[in-house]
Specification:
Alpha-mannosidase 2C1-like, five-stranded antiparallel beta sheet, alpha-mannosidase activity, 185 residues, alpha+beta, Ams1-like_N, 2 domains, Jelly Rolls, six-stranded antiparallel beta sheet
Length: 185
């Protein structure tokens, strides 16, 4: 649907994005004490089963006051957003969850400068199969972040999309009914 491209309005780049690649899973406390290197969106990292931590520094524009603001994060693997040392939300393209709500209606008293951490596992939502979920893992696969930016979220568009999805599902269910079934409705 063409309306999907209206889901996000204005966008704003992150203040900084740095990364730390680890061969094993490490805790937030361990990761946050390490030295992070600059990361450019689109650069690859990995391989499969490694973990990449990102330090995300952002500043929300003052002009976005009163708007719903999200961190848009599109990556190949499974990601977890950490805020104030706590895991707050998972992100994955496979699960169609690619944004984290920073504010539902930005107010002056809310912090406009925020530092988040994003922990990304170098595997898909259902493993790391070569071409399918049930295939053996590809040990040399590389991963990347395709989008990392601040965006204004258009809640009305999301609600309209939900309505469309519901209507489409209703049509699918009722399109298989007979005329007798229709009369009963």
């Amino acid at each position: 649907m063409i309306i999907v491209c209206r889901l996000y309005g204005d966008s704003h780049p992150l203040e900084s994005l740095t990364s730390l690649l680890s061969r094993k899973r490490i805790t937030f406390t361990e990761a946050s004490k390490q030295n992070f290197a600059p990361y450019k969106v689109g650069d690859t990292f990995g391989p499969t089963w490694w973990t990449c931590w990102f330090k995300v520094t952002l500043k929300i524009p003052e002009s976005w006051r009163g708007k719903e603001v999200h961190l848009l994060w599109e990556c190949d693997g499974e990601a977890m957003v950490w805020r104030d040392g706590q895991p707050v939300q998972g992100l994955t393209k496979e699960g169609e969850k690619t944004s984290y709500i920073l504010s539902t209606c930005l107010k002056d008293e809310e912090p406009h400068s925020v530092t988040l951490y994003v922990e990304m596992a170098c595997n898909g939502l259902f493993g790391a199969g070569q071409g399918s979920m049930i295939a053996g893992p590809d040990p040399n696969r590389k991963f990347s972040v395709q989008r990392a930016e601040l965006v204004v979220f258009n809640r009305a568009v999301r609600e309209l999309l939900t309505d469309f999805e519901l209507l489409i599902d209703i049509v699918k269910v009722f399109s298989h009914r007979t005329m007798h079934d229709e009369a009963l409705l």
